[in-house]
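FAQ
Q: What does a multi-component entry look like?
A: The components come first, one per line:
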Amino acid sequence: MSERGEWPLYEVFVRSKRGLNHVHVGSLRAGDAEMALRHARDVYTRRNEGVSIWVVKASDITASSPDEKDPFFAPAADKVYRHPTFYDIPENVPHM
Amino acid sequence: MGFDNAYEALTEGQDDARWAFGTGFEDPLSGVDTTLPDGVDGADLAAYCVMLGDDALIMSHRLQQWCTWLPELEEEVAVANIALDLLGQARLLLTRAGAADGGGHGEDYYAFFRPEHEFRNVRLVELENGDFAELVTRLLVFSTWRLALLDRLRVSRDPVLAAIAAKGVKEITYHRDYAAQWTVRLGDGTDESHRRMRAALEAVWPYVDELFTAHPVEQRLAVQAAEGNGDGARGGDHDTAPAVAIDPGTLRSEFDDVLAQVLKAASLERPEVAPIPGVAGKLGRDGVHTEAMGYLLAEMQSVARAHPEGRW
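Then the predicted structure of the entire assembly, as tokens:
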């Protein structure tokens, strides 16, 4: 390969020992998903941070646009009744 | 817990540990009896630990020399991690050597203040670095061999050696995987990468036979406790006490199997090249090295020798 193309970007998600879900920790470049997984292990878990890794191609993520911030999120701002806080919980219902 | 905060969710406890350092670290020698086991020759055990320690130390140094030269940032970190794993093994082994021979030497003495002929590493690890294919090939050969060795050493009669081996097996399993992945990518990649892998195999292969040649110290420690069974070196299967060391000759079939599997997947062939003989039959384990070794030591030892009382 005399003219090197750049490897695609992958986003990395790591689950810590205590954590319940995978958390986005950063990104890296790799030739394919298998390589990305190993790179993620080397780059993002070398200080004992994780027990599980997900990688996903950045180009496969569909993200909301900052331009659509208002139509997407602003309407929820004044709908406080959507929170389930208007109910009285009976005393014999545990774990609430 | 705030799972919306990456850093917070990554920390293990609720103490002041910062996310970047993780928590729950283990001491590989925790709870291990460090006294010399009965009937084990301290000088032989020390010499054996120096052999395995020097293999790791010199290989680590060659990998460290790759820093800033690797083709991608991610590979920089991967190779540096591997080098650090090996350095960690070297430190434990050289420390054990100092304790076993009663000479009171610390790990720094072994690494920085010995002359070339006292280094007992196999010659494979000291060779000048080549291209990335050479790094991958040498690492594949080294880690396949060392994994087979440490895997069997986990039942060594010396509990410290057994604990170091148990730690090392997990590390080297990954090193071998890393090298095998790249062997397949490059061997089965472009014409140019395939050509470079073939050249690398031809450069490295002459040093393979030496890996399976037992030094008298290895032979003595491998049969020490076998008591007429002859199979004790493989450990665990028989009533005899496990041996301290492994006769490297017993590792050859596993090595050949693994290499055959990886090379096949990589569309590569085992090269037909003659082994490079030692000097009058003396090999790296006897303290006889290639020309590259003197330059390597000059660089590796220069700072420690310039500041012999220095601490860092």
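Q: Is there any commentary attached?
A: Sometimes. For this entry: Chain B has one domain: 37-306.
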